[in-house]
Structures are given as C-alpha cells and as structure tokens.
Design brief:
By secondary structure, the protein is of the alpha+beta class. The chain is 32% helix and 14% strand. Helix 7 packs antiparallel against helix 8. The chain is elongated.
Length: 332
C-alpha cells in the first residue's frame, strides 16, 4: 500500500540535535501521518509495547537521550505522534501492578499532601464543559500545605494522568478550599449517608464502587473517598475521642436528592453499596458520616475509647442533656 509509512528509514538517522532540515523532514512525515490518520477508522489502534525505544532518536524523539529521561518524559513525546494512539506499559505486560504496590506508592506521598477522589455524574459547574454535564466522572480533590512549587511537583502525576476534562488546581487560601463544594450542597435537599473505613483500596472494592457509580440514582449523589494516614495516624489512639488512627481511607456514600418520590430508591442504593463494600472494610466508621438510623454503630465509631467516653458522660452529663447527636448514652 502506497500510504504505508516506515518509522525506520533505510538510511541511518543522525543522533545529534536535529538540524533544520531534519526537523522539517520530521514535520513533513507528521503531516503525512495526520492525513493518513484522518482516513483510518477511530477504532483502529496503532502503537507499540514501549515508548522508550532508544532507536527512535531522530524519528520520534528529536535527539538521543538517556534511558532514564525517556522513561520519565518519553511518553509525552510519543503521544505527540499522530498515528500512535496506544501503548503497552511493560510493567503491566508481565503482571498487573498489585494493590499492595499501589498502596506503597501512595504511602510515599508526604504527610502534607492529601487526595480525595469522588465518583459521580458531572455537575453543571462553570469550569466543566456542558457536554460533560451528567456524565460519569472521577474527580480528584487535592490539598497541599507546603511550598507551592513542591506541591505542583507532587501533584503533577495526578494532573497528567489520563485526559482531564477540567483542571482547577492552584494556590488558594485554606478557607477557600474548604468551601469549594458549597455550590453543590445548598440547603433543602434530602440526604442519606453510609460509611466505611478501609485499610487499602483493593481491586474488588474499586470494582464495587465502579458498578454502583453506573447506577447512581440522582445527579446530586456521589461516592467520596478520603485519603487518611499521615498526620492522622501520628496521634495516639487514646489521645482524643477519635480512635481509628490506622485507617488509610474513609468512604462516604453521599446520597442526595430533592424529590421525595425517590426516597426509597436512593436509600436502597446507598445501603446496597454499603453492604457490597462491607467485606473490604475494617469495621470502623467516622462518627460524622453516620445517619440517624445507625445509633448501634456509635461504639464502632469510637472503638476502644467508647467506655472512657461513657465514664465522662456519666460524670458530666448524666441526664443526657446533650443528646441530639450520635449519642453516647449515660449508664447512671
């Protein structure tokens, strides 16, 4: 076929910094590739098992660079080639990255950096293109309290992962970060929450979350998962009422809707997700994520500190004056 292009010309290509003639040659080849790409069906995927082949210097990459640089920067350059729509990552070719390795990568993030992920339908916020509204998305909410340049370095892999439909990460006051979700949490809606703590994010748990994301009963509903550890785990269990210092993640099944006719369906969905995720949970829970029908889980929320809290309740509030909460009942 006349349109077939060779990535490896018969004549050797110079490995030095590209001359203007070589740069023009690469650009001309890319133009031919783009023209061919336009005629190919979108389902046809062309690529390779690696993006860091040193022999592509002067063909895909403009010059010869060390393997360590290719491993770090080569994929971005590779992706600029019009016909190369896919790539096999060698690490996954031999075996999928196990959850414990992913957890180990997560553990290497400094204590001053935290990332929440939220699975939901895209809300009609001004920074999201209208064509995405109502579609399933994964949102990452990150916070770093150190040097801005260092925070940008740490967040860079997250910001470059996949193809973000929006990126509003940037310096802001902490009080502004706290209120970033307020437009989605206006008063008057109906809410039903369920929650679990997790020691890690296994493939099975992620599959459960993905399956339930596809059946979210209302556009206001979301599955929010917060990263713990770090400073949270550095405090002794007995130092405060909050006991579960060894948890790595907390999930809030945040079911939210406006129409009373959807009460049964929304509550059933939240309970279904909570039940399906239970085999992966630690058995503990964050007290502020409990709903009014979960009074029996208050002991789970405080763990081994519960009996001490009962003693304090008996001493300072034996009549249970402060009882409009997830209540620790006095025993006197």
């Amino acid at each position: 076929m006349n349109d077939q292009l060779s990535l490896f010309p018969l004549e050797p290509v110079a490995r030095e910094s590209p001359t203007s003639a070589l740069a023009a040659s690469i650009e001309a080849r890319d133009e031919r590739c783009r023209a061919l790409e336009a005629r190919l069906p979108p389902t046809l995927r062309m690529g390779t098992s690696s993006w860091s082949f040193p022999g592509w210097a002067g063909i895909v990459y403009p010059r010869s660079v060390p393997a360590s640089v290719l491993a770090r920067e080569g994929l971005r350059e590779y992706a600029r080639r019009p016909l190369l729509r896919t790539v096999g990552i060698d690490r996954s070719y031999y075996a999928a990255v196990p959850p414990e390795d992913l957890q180990r990568y997560s553990d290497q993030v400094p204590d001053d950096f935290v990332c929440w992920f939220v699975m939901r339908q895209a809300p009609p916020l001004p920074f999201l293109a209208p064509e995405w509204h109502g579609k399933e998305i994964l949102a990452l909410a990150v916070c770093y309290r150190g040097d801005i340049a260092e925070g940008e370095r740490i967040a860079k892999p997250l910001r470059e992962f996949g193809r973000p439909v929006a990126d509003i990460i940037g310096p802001m006051p902490y009080t502004a970060w706290q209120t970033v979700l307020d437009p989605l949490l206006t008063p008057g809606a109906r809410n039903y929450w369920k929650s679990h703590d997790f020691a890690g994010l296994s493939d099975g748990l992620i599959q459960v979350m993905m399956e339930h994301t596809r059946t979210i009963p209302d556009p206001q509903t979301e599955i929010a998962c917060a990263q713990l550890g770090g400073a949270v785990s550095s405090v002794p269990r007995s130092a405060t009422a909050y006991n579960h210092r060894d948890g790595k993640y907390v999930m809030n099944v945040h079911c939210r809707w406006a129409d009373p006719a959807k009460d049964e369906a929304c509550i059933a969905w939240a309970r279904g997700l909570w039940k399906a995720a239970a085999p992966f949970a630690t058995g503990s829970v964050y007290v502020n994520f409990l709903t009014q029908d979960e009074g029996e889980r208050v002991r789970e929320a405080y763990g081994e500190n519960f009996d001490r809290l009962v003693e304090l309740k008996n001493k300072y509030d034996p009549s249970n004056l402060f009882g409009v909460n997830q209540n620790i009942r006095p025993t006197v």
